[in-house]
Amino acid sequence: MLVALLPGDGIGPEVLVEARRVLDAVLGDAITYEEAPVGGAAYHAAGHPLPDATLNLARRADAILFGAVGDPACDSLERALRPEQAILGLRRALGLFANLRPAKLFAELADASALRPEIARAIDLVIVRELTGDVYFGEKGRRETADGLRQGYDVMAYDEAEVRRIARIGFETARKRQRRLTSVDKANVLETSQLWRDVMIEVAADYPDVALDHLYVDNAAMQLVRAPGQFDVIVTGNLFGDILSDQASMCVGSIGLLPSASLDERGKGLYEPIHGSAPDIAGQGKANPLAAILSAAMMLRHSLGRAADADRIEAAVAAALAGGARTGDLGGTASTRAMADAVLAAL
Ligand code: ATP
Ligand code: MG
């Protein structure tokens, strides 16, 4: 099994080193790793944020473990050369259309949530976000209205094949959990959402064991804060998923905790923390490595067929938190290394 390690910029390399230590402790040398630069690091080394050699490694690998990209030193570059283009390019080139973002409260961290502890404790959900369509990739531009006003426009479009494949991921994910799927749309207003809803209902016929319901996105946003315990799996489009998953992250505490998986048709995936390169704390040994460690666990479960090892890592993270280890974002003083050491000790 070959894993591509793409550490990237800022705290990316710092947290990926710790994820690697945890993987080594669990798997020994069962995995081969190859590392390549991406983002600002790749721009500085090779003149492009996603060099061919990095993309080729990502294609060859069974899975990709990604740190973060983003580099203030690249702010003045033209858009095609900016670090962020590397992750967009990887998603597009590899067809990574399904983004899975689990959000679960670690019981010990109820006080870190933006919600009241008794509400936060009920959170255990997965957001399945479509990643390669919607208003992000429709035609966009500027034009002038008949009255001579400047107008901007972005076309929102989904075809039925795009909806069907993300619907299947939603149902399959729900099937492995509590068998409840909530499809989030804005079908009272948007044609795209009406098609989305039609296709969800069609696909549901293949999953009679999963309970499907539908929520408008405005109501879903409210329910996520009011009573998040009602959700098991949420499936939604690119734009709504972007907004709801950031909202969900604050409901379970720190951005430094949440992992994600971006999967293609065959389950090959790219795994990354949801946080960015955090230039404000880079190089200081302060970053919380848990999102990266939990991303490695997701990689074992979804791409490498090692669910039991993933369970072990997640249990060790919970035990480390229960033992009191906390980085600064969680109100503690542990260094990146010390936080990972606590996980290793729990393993
Ligand atoms: P980028 O452009 O790379 O996405 P950003 O500034 O938009 O960067 P983040 O890098 O996610 O967003 O940082 C947002 C805030 O969260 C920063 O103050 C950062 O220090 C903090 N932060 C992000 N990740 C972590 C982490 N793993 N541990 C501790 N704090 C973090
Ligand atoms: Mg960011």
TrEMBL record:
One of its GO terms (biological process) is L-leucine biosynthetic process. Pathway: Amino-acid biosynthesis; L-leucine biosynthesis; L-leucine from 3-methyl-2-oxobutanoate: step 3/4. Binds 1 Mg(2+) or Mn(2+) ion per subunit. Keywords: Amino-acid biosynthesis, Branched-chain amino acid biosynthesis, Cytoplasm, Leucine biosynthesis, Magnesium, Manganese, Metal-binding, NAD, Oxidoreductase. GO terms for molecular function: 3-isopropylmalate dehydrogenase activity; magnesium ion binding; NAD binding. Its cofactor is Mn(2+); Mg(2+). Mg(2+) binds at residues 218, 242, 246. The keyword GTP-binding does not apply. Substrate binds at residues 91, 101, 129, 218. It catalyses: (2R,3S)-3-isopropylmalate + NAD(+) = 4-methyl-2-oxopentanoate + CO2 + NADH. It is found in: Cytoplasm. Its main location: cytoplasm. It comes from the Bacteria. Residues 2-343 form the Isopropylmalate dehydrogenase-like domain. NAD(+) binds at residues 276-288. The record marks 136, 186 as: Important for catalysis. HAMAP family: LeuB_type1. Catalyzes the oxidation of 3-carboxy-2-hydroxy-4-methylpentanoate (3-isopropylmalate) to 3-carboxy-4-methyl-2-oxopentanoate. The product decarboxylates to 4-methyl-2 oxopentanoate. Homodimer. Belongs to the isocitrate and isopropylmalate dehydrogenases family. LeuB type 1 subfamily. This is 3-isopropylmalate dehydrogenase. It comes from Sphingomonas jatrophae.
